[in-house]
Write a structure and sequence with these properties.
By secondary structure, this protein is an alpha/beta fold. The chain contains 17 helices and eleven strands. α5 crosses α17, α8 runs antiparallel to α16 and α13 crosses α16.
């Protein structure tokens, strides 16, 4: 009975709460992860004669920017090194035997035999929880907290953070070259995210109304989905919605002074989440204030000298944001530091190097 519970979705939630109660501010960043992040040494000896397959069964947005935007560059790097290694990626299972199969967010069928199995995961840990014991290892791309949670079921777990696209970074570089002293000062706020996060934005309507009273921002520009708003937000003339695209997000970011990104309310949708929306904003060279309830946001903010806030404590949050809003020098400083941090730590090149290191460690065990 206990085993059945621990291997169920309910078991995932119990394990999550246990992790949170032990580490409410987030799990520590240990020395092994530090070496994964910053080491420039590449040991490619384990690659020789090996066959590796990335199985990406569903064409999701996450699959695109986590794997399809990264692994082809990894394959090119391996080829350029002259390694006798075969690396493939497709939505199909491998046609031939391989040494290592890496599956994006799906259990691997029993028909695949004789190879080491690695799960690549960014979310949906509750759905995948009953299948974790079937994997030899895992690669997490969202947060140290999700990494630590998975380590309660799989001993060998690695963390490779997500990238920001070169398209956004190029736009950010152009933005940093603009002389804002010669341009009219922007007086709007950006919010961007997915449809589920947008639905929960309605709970922060009072916060934005109080903030507008205090700082007098012109509009809340929302970039999400097809550009439609929940009913609770659709009748406010100071909110304007836009359908999501990278071009729309980029263009609107230059019309805004600040990006504000409250987290969703549940533990699963805050504590385990990445700092991706905050990073994306800084990639565009737009300062962003994220939610302190997301440990990855806290880490990112600490790294660039910016305070994350608890949007649930609206008066405190408004006070902190007003202080930043009214200080153009502070805005410029965090814009520069945030962009530099994203460019250095979340580029395609850095992701490829991290994959090389992780694959080397996985293949050494095969």
């Amino acid at each position: 009975m206990i085993n059945l519970l621990s291997n169920s979705k309910l078991g995932a939630y119990f394990a999550l709460w246990e992790l949170y109660l032990r580490n409410p501010q987030g799990v520590p960043f240990d020395d092994n992860l530090e070496s994964q992040f910053h080491s420039q040494d590449l040991d490619v000896g384990a690659f020789h004669g090996k066959r590796i397959h990335f199985w990406v069964p569903h064409p999701t947005a996450g699959a695109k920017f986590i794997l399809w935007d990264v692994i082809p560059s990894l394959i090119e790097l391996v080829k350029s090194r002259g390694l006798d290694t075969e690396i493939s990626i497709s939505s199909s299972l491998p046609a031939n035997d391989c040494d290592l199969i890496l599956s994006f967010k799906e259990p691997i069928p029993d028909t695949v035999n004789g190879c080491s199995r690695t799960l690549i995961i960014c979310d949906e840990v509750d759905r995948l929880w009953p299948f974790l014991s079937e994997f030899d290892s895992a690669v997490c791309t969202s947060s140290l907290e999700l990494t630590a949670l998975i380590q309660t079921k799989i001993r060998s777990v690695f963390f490779i953070p997500e990238i920001e696209s070169e398209q956004l970074l190029a736009f950010g570089r152009e933005t940093l070259e603009i002389d804002y002293d010669s341009c009219p000062s922007s007086n709007s706020i950006l919010w961007h995210g997915g449809k589920y996060t947008l639905n929960e934005l309605t709970y922060f309507r009072d916060f934005f109304e109080l903030l507008r009273e205090q700082i007098g921002f012109e509009r809340l520009e929302i970039v999400c989905g097809d550009g439609s708003l929940p009913q609770a937000l659709s009748n406010l003339d100071w909110i304007r919605a836009h359908s999501w695209s990278r071009d729309a997000l980029s263009d609107i970011s230059r019309k805004c002074r600040l990006c504000l990104l409250p987290a969703r309310r549940s533990l699963k949708n805050s504590y385990l989440k990445p700092a991706s929306r905050v990073r994306c904003s800084f990639a565009l060279a737009l300062p962003a204030v994220g939610d302190i309830r997301v440990p990855e946001v806290r880490r990112f903010s600490d790294a660039i000298g910016l305070s994350a806030v608890n949007f649930g404590k609206k008066h405190q949050a408004v006070s902190l944001i007003k202080r930043l809003w009214d200080d153009p020098n502070a805005l410029q400083r965090v814009r520069n530091q945030g962009f530099s941090y994203v460019q250095q730590n979340h580029s395609l090149e850095m992701a490829v190097l991290r994959w090389i290191r992780v694959l080397s460690m996985l293949l050494a065990k095969v």
